[in-house]
Design a protein that fits this description.
46% of the residues lie in helices and 15% in strands. The protein is α/β, with parallel strands linked by helices. Helix 7 links the parallel strand 6 (149-152) and strand 7 (172-174).
Amino acid sequence: MKIGLTTTSFRWDQGAERFVINLTKGLLKAGQEVHVIGRLEKMNALEQFLDQLQPEEKRLFNFHRVKTIKATRYTNLVTYAYAVHKHLKKLDVDIVQGFGKSLGLDVFRPPTGTHKSFMLNLNRRLHLEPCTYQEFSIERRLLFDVAKTIVVNSNLSKNRILEVYPGVTTPIKIIPNMVDFTYWQQETAEDQRQEVRKELSIPDDAIVYLHVSTNFKNKGVPETLAALKMLENRVSKEVFDKIYLILVGDNNYKLDSEYADKIRIFPRTNEVRPYFYAADILLHPTLFDSFSNVVVEGLVCGMPVVTTTMNGAAEAIDHEKSGLIIDSKNAKPLADSMELLLNETRREEMKQAASEKSLSYTPDAITNRYLELYKEVLEKDPVRRTDFTVKPWHALTERAVKKDFEEHFKQLKLN
């Protein structure tokens, strides 16, 4: 089978984009010809990927680079959509799955859930800018008119699509994210633990919480810092002195905390394994995520994971067995969970359960589910969806989208 995959950017340091890379590897391993279409912002990302392929897999892999005009968010979005669609019209493949917002897709997988859901969940009113209207416009056409099938990674994402886009009749399939188990090299993790902690000036007997994301504000770091304050008032000084927090991924976050001596903060990086090796517990109290890859990565590493009901990846956790699921936007349940996991016996019990739970998300298992989906779609409708064009934003679109968006604010009582 010849498969096309579109992505906003070919890179390792963000969850949605990393999933495209992992799926590509899985499809190549299964003997499929794969064409990836997207931006390439860092050449070493492609080189790193090629180094991991076998000779036969390299022969089956093709990368089609698109360039965009990054003057504004609007030009970046629209030129991406046009460039990808132009490639797709010429591409000789059987089926195209898209992870970015462009038309000409047979299978559409919203990379982080729909943009409309994202803005509603973060309680953001509609900014009066063309990019927002254009993004909603493309999204709506994909959901209603273009895609033969929509793929989401959680029930949360599916329910949110049906809630904010009532009337969608396109079939919606749920296939969760995968994790590259070979990347984590669990057989070496314990050996590296002490070495990494020494480099980070963290004692061997410390209890280390880890948070990894590219947007600390939306992923719950302010709530984490507030929970840390609550924890100080609940436990003894001896116990609190052993607590450390590692934050990784947000290059723009300005840390202003009285606990600076307990916190290790690092910028976005392709290599996050050392921080996982050093940690005991993964915290991801996100305000909204369709499915955070980092949650399953924490499970693979045998860490209890704390996340929220507004994260689709909470479906990967057995509450109180492999992790804890809490309400978002509230520091108290997070502090309760952090306190509970100070108990070493409880952590060890969850560690084993977490490792076992992660086996459902192996690359082979998830890749096979996608191949089954592609075959099903092609059997029903083998004709490619290449005849749709990107309609530019205009005033009528602005009024219609703004009215629609404001109605949802009223219905969901988020204003």
